[in-house]
Design brief:
With 390 residues, the protein is α+β, with helices and mostly antiparallel strands. Helix content is 40%, strand content 24%. The protein has helices spanning 4-8, 10-13, 16-20, 44-50, 54-57, 62-66, 73-82, 121-168, 172-196, 209-223, 245-262, 326-336; strands spanning 25-30, 38-42, 86-95, 98-108, 113-120, 205-207, 229-233, 241-243, 270-283, 286-298, 340-346, 349-357. The strands form three sheets. The protein has a five-stranded antiparallel sheet. It has a five-stranded mixed sheet with strand order 7-9-10-12-11, sandwiched between helices. It has a two-stranded antiparallel sheet with strand order 6-8. The chain is elongated and about 100 Å long. Mean pLDDT is 78; it is low at 364-390.
């Protein structure tokens, strides 16, 4: 049953590698045996879309895979008999990621075989959304740099004047005031530095994502043991990713730290940690053959609706005591890895997702277009009191 069309056509077989590089999900079905239109081939994008390997999928009827009334054996047979392809648009399908909408087309491939092509609509929506976010983030970055320049210059003069005045004073009580001026000037300068972004080059090396997650879980358990239950669903086949271990720990710590704080009033608080490999995944303008997907899923109250679209921007916080920097920092770190962070939230279920390329593009190792925000604390330092959305 495996790839009958390719087996009978050596020339076409040479294109299997090309098909596996397509973002379009391609499925070949065979009606030769019992007219049940069983699957004889699916490319890597189709395996990723449906969450099934070829070994689990080859030989099953197409109807069991897509559950669509427009793709019944009678309809498929009509395509074979007439040679007329057809296309269905905005069809809801239940796949590995839940309910998605796709356009799909079915066309004859041979006397007994059909070619089925699926295009996920949410992929185009996400790419468009990412491009808009990049544009807005670039604007915010330029604004932040301009403001930082305007703020740090007078701060430097203010601090210098306070130091000179401090040397002139002999009354310790008066010198307390100059000490306050100097310390507050330093605090504001550090805040501006945090908004500007992490300094230094990202150091890429092979990193086990599971080791990163477990290190963060240990840090959180040390701060508040047994308050939150952690469930794990790790993919043992997930390869190492090219990443900066310490920065990835910081990004993970920001997300899980926020989640644990958001769960403080939730009965039976739980965070589920899931990993898997995603094939042929597009991040911005780039398509990656393999991507590591990490999901952090909690059962808390969710991200406040009024900031849901802005939670990755600096100074946006869902808590009065929050600085609004944690998720902006995380987004910057993920962007430095040429990756993507997404959030889906509703009361009782919030999912933050990392998508990290297994291999970094060459020669550049740093992504552009992120909101430049630096880490607010060292790895393992106390977690800032912030909820989802900072």
């Amino acid at each position: 049953m495996r790839g009958t069309f390719f087996a009978r056509n050596p020339t076409v077989a040479t294109y299997r590698d090309i098909l596996d590089q397509l973002t379009t999900a391609v499925v070949v079905v065979d009606a030769a045996s019992d007219r049940s239109f069983r699957i004889s081939y699916l490319n890597q994008s189709a395996q990723s879309l449906f969450g099934r390997s070829d070994t689990r999928t080859l030989g099953i009827p197409l109807a069991r895979l897509i559950h669509d009334d427009h793709a019944t054996p009678a309809v498929l047979q009509d395509v074979l008999d007439t040679g007329q392809p057809f296309t269905k648009r905005e069809v809801p399908l239940y796949v590995v990621d839940g309910l998605v909408r796709v356009n799909y087309s079915i066309s004859p491939l041979s006397e007994t075989e059909l070619l089925v092509e699926f295009e996920r609509l949410d992929r185009f929506i996400r790419i468009d959304r990412d491009e808009r976010h990049v544009t807005l983030q670039e604007t915010v970055r330029k604004l932040a740099r301009g403001l930082a320049h305007e703020i740090k210059n007078p701060l430097g003069g203010l601090r210098g004047a306070a130091q000179l005045l401090d040397r002139q004073l002999v009354d310790d009580e008066q010198r307390e005031y100059t000490s306050v001026i100097i310390s507050e000037a330093d605090r504001l300068r550090n805040l501006v530095d945090r908004i500007m972004g992490p300094n230094g080059e990202v150091s890429f090396e092979p990193v086990n994502v599971h080791h990163v997650i477990e290190r963060v879980v240990k840090l959180l358990d040390a701060e508040s043991p047994a308050e939150v239950k952690f469930e794990r669903s790790y993919d043992p086949s997930l390869p190492q990713v090219e990443a900066d271990f310490e920065r990835l720990v910081q990004a993970t710590l920001n997300v899980l730290g926020n989640a644990t704080l958001a769960l403080k009033d939730t009965p039976d608080p739980c965070i589920r940690l899931e990993t898997r490999v995603v094939r042929q995944f597009t991040i911005g303008p780039n398509r990656h053959r393999l991507v590591a997907n990490v999901d952090f899923i909690d059962n808390g109250p969710g991200v406040p609706a009024d900031i849901a679209d802005r939670i990755f921007y600096p100074m946006i916080s869902g808590r009065a005591e929050g600085s609004g920097l944690g998720l902006a920092i995380t987004q910057t770190i993920i962007a430095q890895h040429n990756g993507l962070i997404e959030c889906e939230s509703e009361p009782g279920r919030t999912v933050f997702s990392f998508y990290l390329p297994i291999s970094q593009p060459r020669p550049s190792a740093t992504a552009n277009g992120a909101v430049p925000v630096s880490a607010s604390r060292g790895v393992g330092a106390p977690i800032e009191a912030q909820s989802h959305g900072q």
